[in-house]
Amino acid sequence: MTNRSERKKVLILLGSPRKNGNSAILAQEIAKGAEAEGAEVESLYIHGMDIKPCQACWVCQNPDAEGCAIKDDMQTVFPKLIEADSWVIATPVHWFNMSTQTKLWMDRCFALAKYGENPFRKKIGIAIAYGDVDPYASGAINAIRCFQDAFRYVGAKIAGIVYGSALNSGEIAQNEAALKAAKELGHKLAE
Predict the structure, then answer these.
(1) Beta strand pairing status for 97-98 and 123-130?
(2) Contact 96, 139 (CB under 8 A)
(3) Model confidence, pTM
(4) Could you report the per-residue pLDDT of 89-145, keeping only the tens digit for each?
(5) Antiparallel, parallel or unpaired: β 40-45 and 9-14
């Protein structure tokens, strides 16, 4: 158990339009594992936020920039991302990749490069739920690869990826192996 003054902060980004969908259930298990280690866990429901798409203006990359020029809910998310020790990105697979909500958030993280030395040097946990039984046919592999490529590019470490097949809302709760793996990932993120 971690000392209270050394508590790790885990930020969970829920990228499904279903508040209690399958990827959210996996994220809840990750949270339980992290909290068991004494971590402070906060969840953000991305679908309910005003997150506009990146405008490719490059203002955030100017030497004198103070971050992203778009004034929306990402302005409150950026400090939370920077403050957290670990991030959890929970997404369903929609049309052979991560959800649109998750992709909007991820694209806007481009501006993080201007927030400190390297704000991506975090432990990243990823939770993915998909409808087909095959992770290749469902597109889960595309989502996983997208996360791997993007986080490798910015120097972030993916601590683990938990995924499982579940089409109907709540169905993942029957997948004991995925739930166990999610909880174990939570322990790992809080170390």
Answers:
(1) unpaired
(2) yes
(3) 0.94
(4) 999 999 999 999 999 999 999 998 776 667 788 999 999 999 999 999 999 999 999
(5) parallel
Give the separation between CA 104 and CA 27, rounded to whole angstroms: 19
Nearest 5 degrees, angle CA 141-CA 127-CA 124? Answer: 100
CATH architecture group of domain 4-175: 3-Layer(aba) Sandwich (3.40)
At residue 123, φ and ψ (nearest 5 deg) are -85, 130
Domain ranges of the chain: 4-175
Question: Which residue type, as a one-letter code, is found at position 109?
Answer: C
Q: Give the separation between CA 16 and CA 158, rounded to whole angstroms.
A: 20
Cβ burial 59-80 (10 Å sphere, 16+ → b, else e): bbeeeeeebbebeebbeebbee
Report the amino acid identity of residue 189.
L
Summarize pLDDT for 106-116 with one digit per residue, the tens. Answer: 999 999 877 66
Token pair belonging to 47: 């679908």
Residue that has been written with the tokens 């166990």 in this structure:
180
